[in-house]
Every structure is written in C-alpha cells, then in structure tokens.
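Sequence, please.
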C-alpha cells in the first residue's frame, strides 16, 4: 500500500479503481492539478480519460497502448513506454490498454496550458526526443515541455549530490521520483525520503534535494509559472545534514 502520511500539508485523496488499482489526487488547485494512478492489468486492463482541458500523461512505470478519438471522429494511436509523456487534447476520448502487469502514470494539468495545435499527432516526449542541458549544481535536465503556464522536465541528480537550500518566489513545484530514493530537506528537520507518489512544494517553501546514494537518481519536475528571478537561495549555518 502507498504510505499516505508524508504529504506536506494534506494527505492525497485515495480512490479505488478496482480490487488493487488506485488513483491518488496529489494536488488540486487553480494553477496545478496532479494525480497518480497505480494500475494492475488483471484488475484494470483498460481505462478511459475525457478531460475538459489539455492534460499531460506521463508513464512512471510500465507500458501502455493509447487510442485517442477527436471530435471529427479521427482516431490516433501510439504506444507509451516508461518515462515517456504525451499531451491529451481537451475534449478528446482517450482509451489506454495496459501492456505490462502494472502501470504507474501521472496526470498533470497546468492553468491555461493550451496544447491543441501541438497535439494533432500525439507527439511523445522523453529524454530521447529532447536535448539535455546541464543546469544548476550539475543537475542534468531534459525539458519535456515549456510554456507560459510553467514547465515539465526530467532531472537527473548525480551520486552523493547535495543541493543548496532555496525557495521559489511564485511557483509551485511537484517532484516525482522515477528511480532511487532522493531526500528533501527544508532545513528545519531531518531530510525525508521523497514519497514514491511525489511531493508538492509550495511557493516560498524552503527545499533542497539530496542524493546520498552512489547511483544517479531521476525525478519528474513540474513547475507552475514563475518570475525570471524566481529561485531564491537561502543562507544556512554550516551543519551536517541528517538523512
């Protein structure tokens, strides 16, 4: 079972989708919606989605077959594998069929993130379709999508990594671990492992990511609209972090 005790303000809303399959509403605000679904093939072999706004579907684990029906009865189909994402156009009927025993997926909506013109071909995005950049503190980033509403990216944190404490001035952030066990600190308590269903970090909330292992860890990072100088570093007293 998923541990629901480590959400920063409220526990996720847990819905049953069958005997074993479940849906967690991680965050539901005007600027950001995040849901996590853990599906079992013998319990929920197929599932349908019909959203009023464009929704980003990301596969955290497993593989599925996606069919999309447009208003003009045009149909499109594709196969989504682990760590691939695609925009589901608003008002389309989407059907997924699980191709592996289990699938974990994430559904993301950002305010006014209109992707209709870009989604006519169910274009998949992943680390293999976009160029990576080397950002702050040697974090390798693959920008999956970026627009006025925010951005969605894959971030790779190197072994024995320790991030300086900072906060986002105006942006809400969601972090979802895809492998390994990253830790998050707010400099007030001992660092905690990021929950396997992810963590939402509010604007102006201090945070720092730690990777104490000898292997790199990858996370999906979603961030709402922010100012150009939205990231503010915090000064801290020299001290050893407890993991």
């Amino acid at each position: 079972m998923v541990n629901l005790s480590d959400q920063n303000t409220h526990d996720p809303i847990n819905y049953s989708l069958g005997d074993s399959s479940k849906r967690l509403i991680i965050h539901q605000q005007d600027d950001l919606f995040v849901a996590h679904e853990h599906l079992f093939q013998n319990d929920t072999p197929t599932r349908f989605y019909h959203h009023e706004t464009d929704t980003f579907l990301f596969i955290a684990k497993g593989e599925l077959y996606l069919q999309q029906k447009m208003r003009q009865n045009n149909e499109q189909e594709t196969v989504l594998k682990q760590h691939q994402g695609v925009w589901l156009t608003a008002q389309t009927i989407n059907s997924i069929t699980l191709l592996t025993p289990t699938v974990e997926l994430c559904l993301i909506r950002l305010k006014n993130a209109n992707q209709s013109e870009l989604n006519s071909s169910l274009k998949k995005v992943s680390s293999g379709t976009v160029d990576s950049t080397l950002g702050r503190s040697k974090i390798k980033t693959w920008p999956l999508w970026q627009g006025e509403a925010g951005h969605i990216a894959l971030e790779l944190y190197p072994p024995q990594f320790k991030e300086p404490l900072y906060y986002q001035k105006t942006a809400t952030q969601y972090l979802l671990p895809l492998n390994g066990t990253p830790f998050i600190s707010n400099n007030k308590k001992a660092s905690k492992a990021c929950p396997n269903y992810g963590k939402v970090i509010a604007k102006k909330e201090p945070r720092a990511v730690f990777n104490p292992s000898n292997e790199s860890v990858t996370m999906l990072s979603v961030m709402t609209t922010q100012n150009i100088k939205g990231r503010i570093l915090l000064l801290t007293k020299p001290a050893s972090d407890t993991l």
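The chain is about 0% helix and 45% strand.
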